[in-house]
Amino acid sequence: MKVLAVVVFYNPEGDVYKRCSLISSQVDDLIIYDNSIQPEVIKENRIITSKINNATYYGEGSNNGIGAALNFAVSYAQENDYKYLLTFDQDTVIPEEYVSRMLSSFQNAPDAGVIGPIYKDVNANRECRFPVKYGPFTIRKTLSNEKGIQNVMSIITSGTLYPTKIFKEVGCFESDYFIDYIDNEFCLRLLQHGYNVYVDPSIIINHDLDNRSLTKFLVKLSPTNYPFYRKY
Questions:
Q1: CB 52 within 8 A of CB 25
Q2: What pLDDT digit, counting tens, does each position of 6-61 carry?
Q3: Which of 31, 58, 151, 181 has a CA between 20 and 30 Å from the CA of residue 66?
Protein backbone atom coordinates (compact mmCIF):
# COMPACT_ATOMS: atom_id res chain seq x y z
CA MET A 1 0.00 0.00 0.00
CA LYS A 2 2.19 2.83 -1.29
CA VAL A 3 1.66 6.28 0.21
CA LEU A 4 3.04 9.51 -1.23
CA ALA A 5 3.09 12.78 0.70
CA VAL A 6 3.63 16.30 -0.61
CA VAL A 7 4.64 19.33 1.43
CA VAL A 8 4.26 22.72 -0.24
CA PHE A 9 6.97 25.25 0.64
CA TYR A 10 6.89 29.02 0.42
CA ASN A 11 9.64 30.73 2.43
CA PRO A 12 9.29 28.23 5.30
CA GLU A 13 10.22 29.26 8.84
CA GLY A 14 11.03 27.38 12.02
CA ASP A 15 12.20 23.78 12.15
CA VAL A 16 10.72 22.72 8.82
CA TYR A 17 13.27 19.90 8.60
CA LYS A 18 11.81 18.32 11.74
CA ARG A 19 8.25 18.70 10.49
CA CYS A 20 9.10 17.14 7.13
CA SER A 21 11.09 14.35 8.75
CA LEU A 22 8.08 13.39 10.86
CA ILE A 23 6.04 13.10 7.69
CA SER A 24 8.68 11.27 5.65
CA SER A 25 9.18 8.64 8.35
CA GLN A 26 5.54 7.58 8.00
CA VAL A 27 5.19 7.40 4.21
CA ASP A 28 6.94 5.67 1.35
CA ASP A 29 8.06 8.85 -0.36
CA LEU A 30 7.87 12.61 0.13
CA ILE A 31 7.79 15.41 -2.43
CA ILE A 32 8.81 18.89 -1.37
CA TYR A 33 7.31 21.30 -3.87
CA ASP A 34 8.99 24.68 -3.47
CA ASN A 35 7.14 27.85 -4.44
CA SER A 36 9.88 30.06 -3.02
CA ILE A 37 11.50 32.55 -5.39
CA GLN A 38 14.51 33.92 -3.48
CA PRO A 39 17.75 32.09 -4.44
CA GLU A 40 19.06 31.86 -0.88
CA VAL A 41 15.76 30.40 0.36
CA ILE A 42 15.67 27.90 -2.50
CA LYS A 43 19.24 26.84 -1.73
CA GLU A 44 18.37 26.20 1.92
CA ASN A 45 15.24 24.26 0.96
CA ARG A 46 17.29 22.04 -1.34
CA ILE A 47 19.68 21.32 1.51
CA ILE A 48 16.79 20.42 3.80
CA THR A 49 15.41 18.02 1.18
CA SER A 50 18.80 16.37 0.66
CA LYS A 51 18.90 15.41 4.34
CA ILE A 52 15.72 13.34 4.05
CA ASN A 53 16.38 9.96 2.43
CA ASN A 54 13.01 9.44 0.75
CA ALA A 55 12.37 13.07 -0.22
CA THR A 56 12.42 14.57 -3.72
CA TYR A 57 12.74 18.31 -4.35
CA TYR A 58 10.86 20.13 -7.07
CA GLY A 59 10.87 23.85 -7.75
CA GLU A 60 10.99 26.21 -10.71
CA GLY A 61 12.16 29.33 -8.90
CA SER A 62 8.67 30.78 -9.20
CA ASN A 63 5.50 30.77 -7.14
CA ASN A 64 3.11 28.54 -9.07
CA GLY A 65 0.49 28.43 -6.32
CA ILE A 66 -0.84 25.63 -4.17
CA GLY A 67 -3.06 24.16 -6.87
CA ALA A 68 -0.14 23.58 -9.23
CA ALA A 69 1.88 22.01 -6.42
CA LEU A 70 -0.90 19.61 -5.47
CA ASN A 71 -1.54 18.67 -9.09
CA PHE A 72 2.15 17.93 -9.58
CA ALA A 73 1.90 15.47 -6.69
CA VAL A 74 -1.30 13.96 -8.11
CA SER A 75 0.41 13.29 -11.45
CA TYR A 76 3.47 11.84 -9.71
CA ALA A 77 1.28 9.55 -7.59
CA GLN A 78 -0.67 8.33 -10.62
CA GLU A 79 2.43 7.70 -12.73
CA ASN A 80 4.21 5.78 -9.97
CA ASP A 81 1.31 3.67 -8.67
CA TYR A 82 0.84 5.18 -5.23
CA LYS A 83 -2.47 4.14 -3.73
CA TYR A 84 -2.82 7.18 -1.46
CA LEU A 85 -1.76 10.81 -1.48
CA LEU A 86 -1.28 12.94 1.64
CA THR A 87 -1.11 16.73 1.28
CA PHE A 88 0.54 19.11 3.75
CA ASP A 89 1.55 22.70 4.10
CA GLN A 90 4.90 23.64 5.62
CA ASP A 91 3.53 24.51 9.09
CA THR A 92 1.71 21.29 9.96
CA VAL A 93 3.05 19.10 12.75
CA ILE A 94 1.85 15.50 12.79
CA PRO A 95 2.00 13.04 15.71
CA GLU A 96 3.52 9.58 15.61
CA GLU A 97 1.41 6.93 13.83
CA TYR A 98 -0.57 9.68 12.14
CA VAL A 99 -0.49 8.09 8.70
CA SER A 100 -1.29 4.57 9.89
CA ARG A 101 -4.28 5.88 11.83
CA MET A 102 -5.53 7.84 8.83
CA LEU A 103 -5.23 4.76 6.65
CA SER A 104 -7.15 2.75 9.23
CA SER A 105 -9.94 5.34 9.17
CA PHE A 106 -10.11 5.05 5.41
CA GLN A 107 -10.69 1.31 5.60
CA ASN A 108 -13.88 2.02 7.55
CA ALA A 109 -15.20 4.46 4.95
CA PRO A 110 -15.36 2.93 1.46
CA ASP A 111 -17.40 5.90 0.21
CA ALA A 112 -14.78 8.45 1.30
CA GLY A 113 -13.27 10.82 -1.21
CA VAL A 114 -11.00 12.34 1.43
CA ILE A 115 -10.41 12.09 5.17
CA GLY A 116 -8.86 14.72 7.40
CA PRO A 117 -8.03 15.22 11.09
CA ILE A 118 -9.11 17.71 13.72
CA TYR A 119 -7.01 20.87 13.42
CA LYS A 120 -5.80 22.77 16.46
CA ASP A 121 -5.04 26.37 15.53
CA VAL A 122 -1.72 27.11 17.25
CA ASN A 123 -2.25 30.88 17.01
CA ALA A 124 -5.75 31.06 18.50
CA ASN A 125 -5.09 27.97 20.69
CA ARG A 126 -8.39 26.38 19.89
CA GLU A 127 -9.92 23.67 17.77
CA CYS A 128 -11.07 24.60 14.29
CA ARG A 129 -14.71 24.16 13.32
CA PHE A 130 -16.03 22.33 10.27
CA PRO A 131 -19.04 23.07 8.06
CA VAL A 132 -21.69 20.37 8.55
CA LYS A 133 -25.25 19.93 7.33
CA TYR A 134 -27.94 20.59 9.93
CA GLY A 135 -31.30 20.03 8.30
CA PRO A 136 -31.59 22.55 5.46
CA PHE A 137 -28.75 24.62 6.95
CA THR A 138 -24.97 24.47 7.07
CA ILE A 139 -23.37 25.28 10.43
CA ARG A 140 -19.77 25.32 11.67
CA LYS A 141 -19.15 22.84 14.45
CA THR A 142 -16.32 21.49 16.59
CA LEU A 143 -16.07 17.72 16.36
CA SER A 144 -13.54 16.57 18.95
CA ASN A 145 -16.25 15.23 21.28
CA GLU A 146 -17.83 13.09 18.56
CA LYS A 147 -17.15 9.37 18.16
CA GLY A 148 -16.35 7.75 14.84
CA ILE A 149 -15.65 9.49 11.57
CA GLN A 150 -17.84 12.51 10.89
CA ASN A 151 -19.41 13.66 7.64
CA VAL A 152 -18.57 17.30 6.81
CA MET A 153 -18.91 19.64 3.85
CA SER A 154 -15.23 20.52 3.44
CA ILE A 155 -11.80 20.30 5.07
CA ILE A 156 -8.51 22.11 4.50
CA THR A 157 -5.89 20.38 2.38
CA SER A 158 -3.15 20.07 4.99
CA GLY A 159 -3.02 16.64 6.58
CA THR A 160 -5.69 15.16 4.34
CA LEU A 161 -5.59 11.70 2.78
CA TYR A 162 -6.90 10.97 -0.73
CA PRO A 163 -7.14 7.70 -2.64
CA THR A 164 -5.18 8.35 -5.83
CA LYS A 165 -7.88 6.74 -7.98
CA ILE A 166 -10.31 9.51 -7.03
CA PHE A 167 -8.57 12.06 -9.25
CA LYS A 168 -9.30 10.07 -12.40
CA GLU A 169 -12.99 10.41 -11.78
CA VAL A 170 -13.38 13.90 -10.31
CA GLY A 171 -10.35 15.62 -11.83
CA CYS A 172 -7.43 17.45 -10.24
CA PHE A 173 -7.31 20.51 -8.01
CA GLU A 174 -8.37 23.87 -9.42
CA SER A 175 -5.00 25.52 -10.04
CA ASP A 176 -6.57 28.80 -11.18
CA TYR A 177 -7.52 29.52 -7.55
CA PHE A 178 -3.78 29.73 -6.75
CA ILE A 179 -4.10 29.76 -2.92
CA ASP A 180 -7.55 30.09 -1.38
CA TYR A 181 -10.69 27.96 -1.75
CA ILE A 182 -8.87 25.11 -3.51
CA ASP A 183 -9.84 22.79 -0.66
CA ASN A 184 -13.48 23.94 -0.57
CA GLU A 185 -13.95 23.61 -4.31
CA PHE A 186 -12.45 20.12 -4.44
CA CYS A 187 -14.52 18.87 -1.49
CA LEU A 188 -17.72 20.17 -3.07
CA ARG A 189 -16.77 18.42 -6.30
CA LEU A 190 -16.31 15.16 -4.40
CA LEU A 191 -19.77 15.56 -2.90
CA GLN A 192 -21.24 16.20 -6.35
CA HIS A 193 -19.74 12.91 -7.53
CA GLY A 194 -21.35 10.98 -4.67
CA TYR A 195 -18.35 10.71 -2.37
CA ASN A 196 -18.22 11.79 1.26
CA VAL A 197 -15.81 14.13 3.03
CA TYR A 198 -14.87 12.88 6.48
CA VAL A 199 -13.08 14.00 9.63
CA ASP A 200 -11.70 11.57 12.19
CA PRO A 201 -12.15 13.32 15.57
CA SER A 202 -9.68 10.97 17.27
CA ILE A 203 -6.79 12.36 15.21
CA ILE A 204 -5.55 15.86 16.02
CA ILE A 205 -2.77 17.90 14.43
CA ASN A 206 -1.37 21.34 15.16
CA HIS A 207 -1.82 23.78 12.33
CA ASP A 208 -0.86 27.42 11.76
CA LEU A 209 -3.81 29.21 10.15
CA ASP A 210 -1.94 32.14 8.62
CA ASN A 211 -1.22 34.38 11.60
CA ARG A 212 -4.72 34.08 12.97
CA SER A 213 -5.15 35.77 16.33
CA LEU A 214 -7.97 35.66 18.86
CA THR A 215 -9.86 38.87 19.53
CA LYS A 216 -12.33 39.09 22.42
CA PHE A 217 -15.44 41.20 22.11
CA LEU A 218 -18.88 39.97 23.13
CA VAL A 219 -17.96 36.90 21.13
CA LYS A 220 -14.62 35.41 20.19
CA LEU A 221 -13.39 36.39 16.75
CA SER A 222 -10.39 34.93 14.97
CA PRO A 223 -9.57 36.91 11.83
CA THR A 224 -7.19 35.19 9.46
CA ASN A 225 -5.03 38.32 9.02
CA TYR A 226 -4.21 37.34 5.46
CA PRO A 227 -1.96 39.68 3.45
CA PHE A 228 -3.77 41.86 0.91
CA TYR A 229 -2.92 39.66 -2.08
CA ARG A 230 -4.99 36.80 -0.64
CA LYS A 231 -8.13 38.93 -0.54
CA TYR A 232 -8.38 39.90 -4.21
A1: no
A2: 999 999 999 999 999 999 999 999 999 999 999 999 999 999 999 999 999 999 99
A3: 151
